[in-house]
Amino acid sequence: MLSDDVDRRVDRVVRRLLPRLPLSRLYQALREGDIRVNGARVTPATRTRVDDLIRVDPILAASGRSATGHRQPGQHAPPGTAPARPPPPRAAPAPPARPPPRGRPPPRPAPPVPVLYRDSHILIVDKPAGLAVHGEHDSVMTRLAARTLPRTQALSFAPAPVHQLDRVTSGALVVALTLAAARSWSAALRSGQVVKLYLAVAAGDLRTPAEGALWEDRLRYDRRTRRAWPDPAGAYARARVWAVARATGAAGARLAATLLLVRLHTGRRHQIRAQAAARRHALLGDIRYADGPHRGRAHRAAHHGPASGSTASGPGAGWPVLHAAAIGNDAAAHCAAVAAPLPSGACRAIERQFGPAAVRRARSAVARQLAGGSRDANAGHSGEFEHG
Question: I want to staple 307 with a disulfide (CB 3.0 to 4.6 A). Which of 70, 291, 297, 343 is the partner?
Fold first, then answer.
């Protein structure tokens, strides 16, 4: 039993080992003793220990690995088990794929996801805007699996992100390489020991006090509309926000806008986008949340193209500026904090809207927050500046 399989539920270990075995058959096998640990019957909730030996009935193991999830012809059920249902009829074979048109070059392989930090337990990567974290075809995890992630022999654990970033968000994403790292980072996130800092460009002139504005809401994510809404019955969402730079809309500036530094204390889906929109300061370029007169103008004003390494194509010219600028974990023995550089497109959008000093000022504000750690949640920057 590998360390990444220790202290895991037996049903989850076997489920990972036999992914095609129907869940009902798995629990039946545990009840009837077709799956045993160290020779003894166990319940699904039994936790594994070091040096445990899990024995799975050979016929059950074959059915769990087969394409249909049923016993193969000529195999008989072990004594005391219910007869297996006949396999469903096979579907007609799919027609052969069409060859690519003549003269068109084959698609280029997807570029790798840049690595910001790596040790034996975690991997921190620089996610491009426009690339989903999960997906069967092209995503952060499929690219990492193809080029970067180590091969594991564990039965019940695979490397996975410890938090999520929206498709439109760029920046630092933490991937746990071991079960111990996944558990420790999850515990640190729940206890508030992880510092998550974001940079975003919001519509309108948003002013904040020196200690930052505290945004507290209850949000409900609607899967049908793919938007998060304020709802008294929703999940608690908390963030502290500072205005780093403001463009008043005069002297040639295209729109009134505010460059924000956001420290997330919770991790709700679309949290920054939804909380900003709830205060009538939706992110520039975020057509999903922008309303009223800002919708069309914001769509064209401050969003940037997909970051380097993204093959996705967003609406219009690209994506809103929403960047996971840094992440730090006070509980981590190594890797106290890691910063992700702003994508070149986001830098150009910020400089165009707020002037050439805005990017430098944003980086300084991020550094000051990281220096404070989780113990200094109210430490802001030295002030904001106004452009145009």
Answer: 343
